[in-house]
């Protein structure tokens, strides 16, 4: 993957980020994926049971100003959480397969 997070280390940890990010250099893709999964679950836990989040919220929390680079990894993280039975992905209020979904999606707690 090779996302660079240079410049996004503001000195404070993002939600779910239990370790400091390097100020320069790539962050391993598996670590980013784990961070995104944790942040998705934390964002949902902080909301009402009926609320949804956008994958961009997790991408922003982990990636800072480079959040756009993390949109696809955030969608994949949501897909892994769907496989684990922890969340559902929706489009237009209907549950969809995250691997087949094209366009905007939302993530919610399993209902």
Structure description:
- The chain has 111 residues and is α+β, with helices and mostly antiparallel strands.
- It has one domain: Winged helix-like DNA-binding domain superfamily/Winged helix DNA-binding domain (Arc Repressor Mutant, subunit A, Orthogonal Bundle).
- The chain contains three helices and four strands; from the N terminus they run H-E-H-H-E-E-E.
- The chain has helices spanning 29-45, 55-63, 71-83; strands at residues 52-53, 87-91, 94-95, 106-109.
- The protein has a four-stranded antiparallel β-sheet.
- Strand 2 and strand 3 form a beta hairpin.
- Helix 1 (29-45) crosses helix 3 (71-83).
- The longest helix has 17 residues, at 29-45.
- The protein is globular and about 40 Å long.
- Residues 1-20 have low confidence and may be disordered.
CATH class placement: Mainly Alpha
Mean pLDDT: 84
Form type: globular
Tally of helical runs:
3
Q: Detail the poorly predicted runs.
A: 1-20
What is the name of the CATH architecture? Orthogonal Bundle
Give me the CATH fold name: Arc Repressor Mutant, subunit A
Number of E strands? 4
Biggest sheet descriptor: 4 strands, antiparallel
**Rg from Cα:** 14 Å
Specify the structural class.
alpha+beta
Cα distance, first to last residue?
Answer: 33 Å
Q: How many distinct domains?
A: 1
Biggest sheet, strands in spatial order?
1-4-2-3
Which band does the percent of strand residues land in? 5-15%
Q: What pattern of helices and strands is seen along the backbone?
A: HEHHEEE
CATH superfamily: Winged helix-like DNA-binding domain superfamily/Winged helix DNA-binding domain
